[in-house]
Amino acid sequence: MREAKVIYSVRTCVPLPPSREPLPLNFANSQALFRRAAEVIPGGIYGHTTPAATLPGATPYYAVEGFGCRYRDLDGNTFIDFLCGYGPMLLGYHHPEVEDAATAARARGAAFNHPTPLMVELAEALVARIDFADWAVFAKNGADLTSWTVMVAREYTGRPKILKIRGAYHGTHAWCTLGHGGLIPEDRAHIHDFPFNDVAALETLFALHRGRIAGLILTPFHHPAFADSELPSPAFVAACNRLCREHGTLQILDDVRCGFRLSTGGSHSVYGYTPDLSIYCKAIANGHPLSAAVGRAALKPAASRVFLTGSYWNDPAPMAAALATLAVIERDNIPARLAALGERFVTGFLALGEKHGVPLRASGPPAMPYVRVADDPSFIRTQQLCAAAVAEGVFLHPHHNWFISAAHTEADIDEALQRLDTAFLNLSLSS
Ligand SMILES: Cc1ncc(COP(=O)(O)O)c(C=O)c1O
User: Fold this and answer.
1) Are residues 290 and 424 in the same domain?
2) Are residues 220 and 354 in the same domain?
3) Across residues 60-75, what is the average pLDDT?
4) Residue 61 and residue 30 share a domain
5) pTM of the model
6) Which one, 140, 158, 205, 404, has the greatest CB density within 10 A?
7) 328 burial type by CB count under 10 A (0-12 exposed, 13-18 middle, 19+ buried)
8) pLDDT one-digit tens code per residue, 298-343
């Protein structure tokens, strides 16, 4: 077993550049721990981080610590991270202003009998930043509030039906999970889906269920796993806005993944949606557990009638982290920075594909890009490309969109591209 190297200390927050690892990287500690985990944890690692969907042995299974845009795994390998914890890591691991705020709040206590004043301050901060928002509520995970906003739409309209985009992810609750286990047909009795950007299909559903549709839940752009990302067409956005207005249906924007990455005030403004309710989560507190839903004034009475609580939901530290994160996002115009860095990364990545004769396809906004091997329906070649990138110390996911963080610098992007150049040289793709 190789001894894990200390690449940097998060306690002293002194970052060091990653060491150049000999190929192939060693994931022996990760794999040994995974075998132990499988004895006591169903599936060993469950959910979206399961290693089951990637090439066996090609990626680490356990992280140990992170700083900025890099993290270290259990075997001492370090990676320039382009997954950013599947989204929460907006400003980078261990952002000093966020951590100081969270630590100061934590020092005063956790999970009190009551909310703290931080909850009011945070609601005020969201209402000030998000143009259509008149109120805010808080929970821990995205799914807590995608499900709650669906209930608010039903309470407000007195209608049962919810329209959703086919293949869109809104969490693990029964009405929306992409999994198959444990469901009964009644869970989806009033959920109807349609293909993203398909105006005709949406119009048909509105006509078919006239007067019965409580809410239309959307993501700002479509970012399914095992597929290219898809931006909304102006005609689709206009149809969503018009149909909701005409039918008295609430528009719910699930901004859990994109929120505060594309715009400082919520992603609806980027594409022109007119939501009644929006949900934020991943980036809002730079990794501290918090989600938020906001809504229009008219929905406040209905929102106050839909019971909402959880054991840890008043915990002040994540709220302090969110206030600090939102302040940095606005002060440093983080979305503009992410877009510029993402553009640099994607342009460089595509150029490497051309240089090495590997046709690539890029999709999604530059701040949340996804690049895969073109003409690769099984995603095997994309898995091989990502495995080669990981072997060179660049963490890419083969079938989930990527994230740029504000902790990436131009030098980090260029270093990642240099490493990818080597990855392409070592790459042998299945035919
Ligand atoms: C768009 C979207 N909605 C909802 C969720 C669910 O959030 P959580 O996993 O925090 O419950 C996710 C999580 O990835 C998401 O990407």
Assistant:
1) no
2) no
3) 96
4) yes
5) 0.94
6) 404
7) middle
8) 999 999 999 999 999 999 999 999 999 999 999 999 999 999 999 9
